[in-house]
Input
Amino acid sequence: MASEGDRRPDLEVEARRSRVLGGLRLEAEGARGVAIALLSTAVFLTAVVVAVTQSPGWPEVHRAFFGWHDITSTFPEIARAFKLNVKIFLVCEVFILILALVIAVLRSLPGPVFFPLRALAIIYTDLARGVPTILVIALLGYGVPGLQLQGVPTSRVFWAGVGLVLVYSGYVAEVYRAGIESVHPSQEAAARSLGLSRFQALRRVILPQAVRRVIPPLLNDFIGLQKDTALVGTLGVVEAFNQSMIDSSATFTFGAYLAAASLFVLLTIPLARLTDWLILRDRRRRQAGGLLT
Amino acid sequence: MRKLGLFGLGLLVIALAAACGSTKKQTATGGSPSSCAKGSLNLVTPGQLTVGTDNPAFPPWYGGTPHSPWKVSDPRSGKGYESAVAYAVAKQLGFSKSEVTWVHVPFATSYAPGSKSFDFDINQISYTPARAKQVAFSDSYYDVNQSVVVNNGTKIASVTTVKGLAPYELGAQLGTTSYQFIQNTIKPAKKPSVFPTNAGAVQALKNKQIDGLVVDLPTAFYVTAVQVPNSKVLGQFPAQPGGEHFGLVLAKGNSLVTCVNKALSTLRGNGTLMQLQQQWLAKATGAPILK
Output
């Protein structure tokens, strides 16, 4: 009893010591890892910086692109113009999410009766994704108002928005469709056997699962849309990109481009991180679900 | 967090490098500026004068029947004011017509950093002090006035003053000084549009998506005569203090600019520039001045 009592603390101390040592070892390894990471990053960045700054054209590039005054003096006006980009993508995104869902549902309709609708949806997604966005915007922005029809808007922002909605709906419809097809057919069979109509099964069982699964790729397309609002500038509308081109051509420098780019980045980075987080959360949930079933 | 820190460190290093770079001396290209002998000129291709302009090349600056790759006009024709000036300058520098090559230089490319594909670019580019810090400008080959084109029968068509233009939606072409003019002098109520291409600007005027298009006067006459049916030059703007002129654009530090200026000075002195303006831009003189 006594001997046991004597030995146990020893063992415990031993165990604790090894745990502590192990922890220290782990910590040391971690610190070593960080040191290596820091060193390799420093070496890499130094190499890049040296390569860039020692290049024969660097003084000229530096003068043209990194003029601090060019960047800061143009920033406020570009930021004001950027409000239009934000407006365009917020409004367009709503219509894209609705139109794309309709197209995806049409394409997922089973049975020979719905063949024409399915064909239409396929042709639509092919065309919407096939024609370059800049062409769609130019064709709509200059073409439709050119018809001079009564009651048809001539606003270039309006038609550029329509162009973005048409193009992005093609992409987003395919994202939705992937989601819909990822829901096992037994789900629909089960819903129908419970007495739900085809529409009810779609609305209450299939779509909620499908949409939840594709939220990360949907956000991905949303980020793409934010950047493509710059294409509206090709119609002469002064949004952030066009404003930066104006500033650039006024001084023959490119600092304004960096100002515009930074605005787009500031907007997309939070959304990109949100997308990452959603993907991570989704993976955790599914892994947890896997353990349960 | 740690990753973010690293990223920040990286940005800092790059920013520092960018800041340090500014102290470096600029590398000047070219030889001695004193000699303008053909053999000693600093050229992209030795023995050849390479001239840049944008494609399509529009009248009245360029003329002749277009041949591939040129559209609308052909700079190689020697017809049109800028083509004629380019060949006249070439002749002064000692180049025959066959020793002149034309290259397509989009506007933004003319001032992008890096080696240039042209000896000089002639593309209705206005001189401004800010621009002259980034490229070399020759002296004036044309003193230009801005003007406004409108559709006949529209409200704006009866305006006679600069102030009267303020309530309307105006447009300009990207890279022209017309946009600065609209912003600083007309100060319109509606944000003006700026079109990356001539085609876009013209279409918007045709569609009445803008009320008036501000362009240089010779271009205005071409727009009304050919591009937009049933339109007119409403008027030209009063000359700005110091005036506005087009200059040839060369790479910064290129010694060729001295020789080009010498050539332009000769052409101005012997009346060639005036004669070419009368030949190609005669139409572009009779527009009322907006008060």
Summary: Residues 1-6, 8-13, 19-33 of chain B have pLDDT under 50 and may be disordered.
